[in-house]
Structures are given as structure tokens and as C-alpha cells.
From TrEMBL:
Keywords: Cytoplasm, Histidine metabolism, Hydrolase, Iron, Metal-binding, Zinc. The keyword Chloroplast does not apply. Binds 1 zinc or iron ion per subunit. Pathway: Amino-acid degradation; L-histidine degradation into L-glutamate; N-formimidoyl-L-glutamate from L-histidine: step 3/3. It is an enzyme of class 3 (hydrolase). N-formimidoyl-L-glutamate binds at Y128, N303, G305. Belongs to the metallo-dependent hydrolases superfamily. HutI family. This is Imidazolonepropionase. InterPro entries: Amidohydro-rel, HutI, Metal-dep_hydrolase_composite, Metal_Hydrolase. It catalyses: 4-imidazolone-5-propanoate + H2O = N-formimidoyl-L-glutamate.
Length: 390
């Protein structure tokens, strides 16, 4: 997965690795003398890709929202459920009630399911606390997951996810009294790798999010945003003006918004699980992302409301089937571009000076990863040059 052919595919390839990373990759016939004596591990002619990266999840949370799934099937929309006190706010109740241990216990099977699909790096957001203690509790739980499992966790502070019931109608007061102080406290504890928000009619205006981004900037933290998911409020262009790492969802984004992202170098994170689960009809502007060279990532958005989807391979399939992304774009979306969406330059491609994190697949061609659904072809993960799932 490093040459000039489609997918960068190299047939009959070899990769020379040390625990520090990749030294060389190319055709087996061209192995350089300097590494020819290395012990060899035969992968049986299998497909090797970079280990996958899920760059947008809410996998730490309390409870579930199967009842809202039933309500939506009876005709209620995602926004109607939210306005009736359900939605994000109902997960906030369950997350506040859960202990840090409870959150970890509930998250472990979710993270294990991702690991079993070859994921080596996962992003996890807060945003179901909406009070200082619970936001910190979620982020601490997310950090602890990385100590319990062979996976790297990148944490994102999402205090501006929704206005909690106790601040109903007082969004700005919530930002000043809870969200921004929680961000500062979390940063103080080194719990934050990036800052996110939800710019939407049922959440915050772009101007309100900009205040949170100003706080992020003063702490030296990168930003990203849930934007134009249900309507076009101009959140993406606003976030791009802050050099956002990524803009996520984007079904209602227009061409000026795409151009703003292109100028800022922001990644478009495509989240087909949420599109599917809320039965959205408007597809994200994939053609415009291509036209303006905006890199596209693909993620699960794993969360209890709009995307209870625990499979990154399924997200790849859906990105192709629902949005007509190509399987090559879908794979770049869960490797190279997902790394960029997290601000990471040391992974997501098989090339020298990158981490030796690979997924080895029972597959002959990379299109197979997006083509099947409900089937997991992972043979093994190799992390830091070592096999960790035999
Ligand atoms: O990414 N868009 C906002 N936030 C989450 C969903 C949160 C929820 O419904 O619990 C998302 O879709
Ligand atoms: Fe999300």
C-alpha cells in the first residue's frame, strides 16, 4: 500500500520494520541488503493496509436510546425527539448517573469491537456530561481505556454539544459558566487533544461556538466541528477560519463552505452511520470535496443516538453505497485522511518513518474491505511491529 498504482498497492510486497517504525517498503524482490538479514514473518500473500483509524466517536457514554429508535420509527424526527427532552440530553442524564468505572465497563466491548476490525487509533469525545465534573469524568474514562487496551485514544472536548436542561434558553450562560471553565479544567489535567462543538439549530450558533474556539486557541488546542448536519448555518466556514482540523457530517454544506475548508486544509469527516440512522435524505457534497481537493475521512460517529454503529468497515461500505465514494476513497478515509483529521502525521500510510501499525486481511484486493458488509475479514493486527491479534 505504498506504490503509484491505485490504492498505492504493491504486489508481492515486503515491509521492513523496527519497534520505532517502518524502515522500508517495496517489492519483495527489491529488499535492500541492509535489512535482508531481518527475521521474516510471512503474511501468506494477504492484503496489508495501515491499521485503521476511527477519527470520530462518542463511545464513552451511559445508557442507550433504543426507545428513541422506536419513537423515530413511529414518525418522530431526530430534532423532534431532541426538542421533547430526549436526544443528547437523555444520554446526559444516564452519563451523569454512571461512575467512571461504569463508563469504562460499558465502553470496553465497543472498543474491543473496533480493535477486532483492525483499528489502532480511536478518537473519543466528551459532550454527554455538560457539567464540569461529568465532562472530566468522561475524558478520564476515555484516557483510561488506552491503558486497558492496545489502542491509542485521542480525546476531544465537546462541552458545546447541547444546552443542558438547567440552562435551557441560556446557551451563552452555559458556555461561560460551564463549558469554557470545564475546558480549562480538562486542559489543566491534560485530558484534551482537540476541541469540538455542535453548530446546529438544536445546539449552538456559529458565533457561540466561536467563543469556545477562542478559548481553545488561547490554550493552544486544535478545533473541529459537527457542522451543517441538519441545516446550513455557516459553521464550517467559521471553523475553517480557525484552521479546523476537520468538519464533520456536512450534509447541508454549500460550495463556499467547501472552498473555505479547502483554503484551511480541513478534512471533511463523512459519517454515513448518522445519515442512515436518522434516515437523512440530503447526501454530503462528495463531488464538491473532490472538485476542491478537500480530503475525506470516514468514521463511525459511534454514539447512542444518531449513530449506534460499532463498525468502521460498515461505515466504509455505507460511504460507498450511500454517498458513492469509491472504495479507494473509503480506505484513505479510515487511514491517511483519518490521521490528518486528528492532526497526526506519523500514521495512516505504509511508508518509511511512519508507525509500524498494520491490519492484515483475509482479502486479495483492498476494494473487498468496502464491498462486503456484516463480515470481518481481519486476519491480524500488527502494532509497533508486533503481532497483537493472532
Ligand atoms: O455526531 N451531531 C451531534 N452529535 C452526535 C449525536 C449525538 C446524539 O444523538 O447523541 C452526532 O451525530
Ligand atoms: Fe458526532
Amino acid at each position: 500500500m505504498a506504490g503509484d498504482a491505485p490504492y498505492g498497492l504493491i504486489e508481492e510486497a515486503a515491509i521492513a520494520v523496527t519497534p520505532d517504525g517502518i524502515l522500508w517498503t517495496g517489492a519483495e524482490a527489491d529488499i535492500p541488503a541492509a535489512v535482508a538479514h531481518y527475521p521474516r514473518h510471512d503474511l501468506g500473500g494477504r492484503l496489508v493496509t495501515p491499521a485503521l483509524i476511527d477519527c470520530h466517536t462518542h463511545l464513552v457514554h451511559g445508557g442507550n436510546r433504543a426507545n428513541e429508535f422506536e419513537m423515530r420509527l413511529m414518525g418522530a424526527s431526530y430534532e423532534e425527539v431532541a426538542k421533547a427532552g430526549g436526544g443528547i440530553i437523555s444520554t446526559v442524564r444516564a452519563t451523569r448517573e454512571a461512575s467512571e468505572e461504569d463508563l469504562i465497563a460499558a465502553a470496553l466491548p465497543r472498543i474491543d469491537t473496533l480493535i477486532a476490525e483492525g483499528v489502532s487509533t480511536v478518537e473519543i469525545k466528551s459532550g454527554y456530561g455538560l457539567d464540569i465534573d461529568t465532562e472530566l469524568k468522561m475524558l478520564r474514562a476515555a484516557r483510561r481505556l488506552a491503558a486497558l487496551r492496545p489502542i491509542e485514544v485521542h480525546t476531544t472536548f465537546l462541552g458545546a454539544h447541547a444546552v443542558p436542561a438547567e440552562f435551557k434558553g441560556r446557551a451563552d450562560a452555559y458556555l461561560d459558566e460551564v463549558c469554557i471553565p470545564a475546558l480549562k479544567a480538562a486542559h489543566e489535567e491534560e485530558l484534551v487533544d482537540a476541541v469540538d462543538g455542535f453548530s446546529e439549530g438544536i445546539a449552538f450558533t456559529p458565533a457561540q461556538i466561536a467563543r469556545v474556539f477562542d478559548a481553545a486557541k488561547s490554550l493552544g488546542l486544535p478545533v473541529k466541528l459537527h457542522a451543517e448536519q441538519l441545516s446550513n448555518l455557516g459553521g464550517a466556514a467559521m471553523a475553517a477560519s480557525y484552521g479546523a482540523l476537520s468538519l464533520d457530517h456536512l450534509e447541508y454544506l454549500d460550495e463556499p463552505g467547501v472552498q473555505a475548508m479547502a483554503s484551511a486544509g480541513s478534512v471533511a469527516v463523512i459519517l454515513p452511520g448518522a445519515f442512515y440512522a436518522i434516515r437523512e435524505k440530503q447526501v454530503p457534497p462528495v463531488g464538491l470535496f473532490r472538485k476542491h481537493n478537500v480530503p475525506m475521512a470516514v468514521a463511525t460517529d459511534l454514539n447512542p443516538g444518531s449513530s449506534p454503529m460499532n463498525s468502521l468497515l460498515l461505515a466504509m461500505n455505507m460511504a460507498c453505497t450511500l454517498f458513492r465514494m469509491t472504495p479507494e476513497e473509503a480506505l484513505a478515509g479510515t487511514t491517511r485522511n483519518a490521521a490528518t483529521a486528528l492532526g497526526l502525521t506519523d500514521r495512516g500510510v505504509i511508508a518509511p518513518e511512519h508507525r509500524a501499525d498494520f491490519a492484515v486481511w483475509n482479502a486479495e484486493h483492498p476494494a473487498e474491505l468496502s464491498y462486503r458488509f456484516g463480515f470481518n475479514p481481519l486476519h491480524q493486527r500488527i502494532i509497533g511491529g508486533w503481532i497483537d491479534i493472532p
